């Protein structure tokens, strides 16, 4: 698996529009987690859901075909794929002829399974499917809480307990989440949903903690895993899930979902996506 310094991230790139699977750049999950300080890695299930909005190829009559793309890969895969390389790979289909959608799907499945070092689930979506009404995250929005924020580097010490001896089951979310790409420093914006059962988490402290990622450098996947690990280490939770719905960059969005019990992420589309 190539090291990150060999990727196209943060570099000027030539855009290839004929099928080139070698553009995909794999990064070992273990390496990404180690660099993020996720040692030991918490027990967790879940997956990463990628959505592509700019995917096209040429049919045998020379007519362009355009559709949406969804790729789902387990968080147990041995590798992640660097997002810019994924974008460049998808763009390489643009002037390549394929006999039918089955051939396109087979090609995507073969290449991405190798890159992620795990089975993937690939779906081509009609544009009418992409036009589906956007959804809201379930539960209570934290964003209207009257809090004073001063920490913009990840600070788990902001996490505090709610009412003493109160056990709850609740879902909360925020649209205020931001991290920075660890290579380019570009901002990555997301809505983050947290569902848990166990001792009450102080809502104000939780919001301030999530805001503290604002200048945190990390990949989408490890940022969500860090939140998951921090919550598990601070609270005696019986169930926990953390879901990040990130805004697209280069026609791709990445949506990591980590859970103590569920392997599949809920599928919906936020207004900013």
What does this structure look like?
There is one protein chain. The strands form two sheets. Strands 5-3-2-10-9-8-7-6 form an eight-stranded mixed beta sheet. The chain has a two-stranded antiparallel ribbon with strand order 1-4. It contains six helices and ten strands. The protein is α+β, with helices and mostly antiparallel strands and 273 residues long. 22% of the residues lie in helices and 30% in strands. The longest helix is centred in the middle third of the chain and has 16 residues, at 101-116. The protein is elongated and about 70 Å long. It starts with 25 loop residues before the first strand and ends in a 14-residue tail after the last strand.
Features:
273 residues; alpha+beta; eight-stranded mixed β-sheet; two-stranded antiparallel sheet
User: Would you report the number of β strands?
Assistant: 10
Would you identify the regions where 5 or more consecutive residues have pLDDT less than 50? none
- How confident overall, as mean pLDDT? 93
Principal-axes geometry comes out as: elongated
Could you estimate the helical fraction of the residues in percent? Answer: 10-25%
Question: Main β-sheet, in a few words?
Answer: 8 strands, mixed
Radius of gyration: 19 Å
Q: Span from first to last CA?
A: 31 Å
- Beta fraction: 25-35%
Structural class by SSE content: alpha+beta
What is the count of DSSP helices, taking H or I runs of 4+ residues? Answer: 6
Order of helices and strands: EHEEEHHEHEEEHHEE
Spatial strand arrangement across the major sheet: 5-3-2-10-9-8-7-6
């Amino acid at each position: 698996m190539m090291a990150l310094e060999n990727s196209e991230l943060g570099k000027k790139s030539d855009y290839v529009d004929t099928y080139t699977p070698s553009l995909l750049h794999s990064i070992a999950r273990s390496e990404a987690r180690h660099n993020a300080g996720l040692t030991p890695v918490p027990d967790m299930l879940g997956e990463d859901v990628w959505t592509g909005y700019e995917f096209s190829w040429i049919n045998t009559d020379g007519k362009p075909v355009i559709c949406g793309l969804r790729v789902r890969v387990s968080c147990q895969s041995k590798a992640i794929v660097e997002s810019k390389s994924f974008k460049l790979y998808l763009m390489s289909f643009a002037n390549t002829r394929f006999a039918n959608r089955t051939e396109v799907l087979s090609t995507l499945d073969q290449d991405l399974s190798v890159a992620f070092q795990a089975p993937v689930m690939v779906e081509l979506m009609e544009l009418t499917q992409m036009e589906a009404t956007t959804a809201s995250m379930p539960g209570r929005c934290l964003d209207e809480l009257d809090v004073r924020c001063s920490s913009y580097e990840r600070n788990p010490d902001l996490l505090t307990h709610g009412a003493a001896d109160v056990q709850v089951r609740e879902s909360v979310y925020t649209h205020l989440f931001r991290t920075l790409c660890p290579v380019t420093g570009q901002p990555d914006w997301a809505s983050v949903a947290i569902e848990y059962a166990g001792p009450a988490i102080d809502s104000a402290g939780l919001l301030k903690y999530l805001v503290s990622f604002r200048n945190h450098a990390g990949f989408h996947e490890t940022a969500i895993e860090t939140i998951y690990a921090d919550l598990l280490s601070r609270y005696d939770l019986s169930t926990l899930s953390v879901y990040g719905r990130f805004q697209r960059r280069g026609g791709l969005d990445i949506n990591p979902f980590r859970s103590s019990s569920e392997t599949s992420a809920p599928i919906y589309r936020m207004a900013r996506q």
